[in-house]
Prior knowledge:
By secondary structure, the protein is α+β, with helices and mostly antiparallel strands. It has a single domain, classed as CATH 1.10.630.10. The chain is built from 20 helices and eleven strands. It has a four-stranded mixed sheet. Strands 3-11-8 form a three-stranded antiparallel sheet. A hairpin with a 2-residue loop joins strand 1 and strand 2. The radius of gyration is 27 Å and the shape is globular.
Amino acid sequence: xxxxxxxxxxxxxxxxxxxxxxxxxxxxxxxxxxxxxxxxxxxxxxxxxxxxxxxxxxxxxxxxxxxxxxxxxxxxxxxxxxxxxxxxxxxxxxxxxxxxxxxxxxxxxxxxxxxxxxxxxxxxxxxxxxxxxxxxxxxxxxxxxxxxxxxxxxxxxxxxxxxxxxxxxxxxxxxxxxxxxxxxxxxxxxxxxxxxxxxxxxxxxxxxxxxxxxxxxxxxxxxxxxxxxxxxxxxxxxxxxxxxxxxxxxxxxxxxxxxxxxxxxxxxxxxxxxxxxxxxxxxxxxxxxxxxxxxxxxxxxxxxxxxxxxxxxxxxxxxxxxxxxxxxxxxxxxxxxxxxxxxxxxxxxxxxxxxxxxxxxxxxxxxxxxxxxxxxxxxxxxxxxxxxxxxxxxxxxxxxxxxxxxxxxxxxxxxxxxxxxxxxxxxxxxxxxxxxxxxxxxxxxxxxxxxxxxxxxxxxxxxxxxxxxxxxxxxxxxxxxxxxxxxxxxxxxxxxxxxxxxxxxxxxxxxxxxxxxxxxxx
Length: 522
């Protein structure tokens, strides 16, 4: 039978089979999607060759838990998922091609934060573009990072230096009191966030650069730069988890970062040059003058081989890490004072008893004698941790054992501090704001007790935690001594959260303020 005859009378015999290559590929892709959809941890974990299965949600087959991190409260969503999958010790999940684990229990949290295997941090594109890969927060573990850590512990955040700036901290607090009083005299209510943020920024600027600014003066440009930087560091960037999208810069993050860095280099570079000129003119004498952070780095630049770029990165990071956290926590505390007038009154009574009900301003030296006020701060850190996911995650630099599981190198590890501080396993009545709990049973918050470690723990613990607490304690005491914080309108306060770089109040606090001690404002 000739081919022409077959084609004429039996055309179907020469048709390709129904199961074509395209169909085979489609079937294979469908099977892969099904596999990933039911794979614990999702896509990134499905592509990892490991014999250990870590419980966790599969999420979307391609994007993983991207919807969680693009929401306003990922810490709450992750806590619910950990409970659902009974994975509080360690839960696996994916965001795009990035492997994650997260701990919601103190035991495994301590293992992660204390392990040398998690000594690095994953560097986001925005952090790299904003120079933070040369600063302490994101610099890879090694000699350069150890030098920065030594400088911060010995020089920048030593008790001596913290005490040296106590007078200026007190001055900033009094200025905030006066500013609130002025605003209240002109309005029915006050939005507290801006005053707290600017006061905190001013304090950091004096500590770091030796400069202070007026509330409505030259500091506006600086505040805009800091706000832009916070937004860029806090935004969810698709390029961090889908490398191919990095070329496109779809969200414009890289472009905005480079524009901001140009301004930062000019701003900080100018201040460094001004400090160098003071040395030439003899206005600053090494070893004799009390300097700021710029002076400390210039003193050490030859010993530690610090370039101008290194110093700019370190100084800029200090501003970022030292400004917003303090202001945000104070706003949460004041919101609680408005909601709990009996707690506010108890703290004010403690302050009044210490100062003898006189016009004497409370000072930093008084804080150790104000235990209830310190308990209020601890309870606020428990209820509203500024970094509920401990802000910046860790990166496994080699295979690491956590519990009974081996975590593969290259995995990003997180700790859900919010889940720990709101768990009934570790706290009685965790949803109640009760500072008295710390009067009965004290808990260390500096990193040794992972039931409450708002500043992290281990090698990457926040180096400025003592300075931050010194500011918060003093300013809270000053604001409570001079002012009474009362509800505005229907008396409600919206405690809804919004996680950006730090966990902020979704609706800024608006309240009324009544002067308590008129003499203290003079």
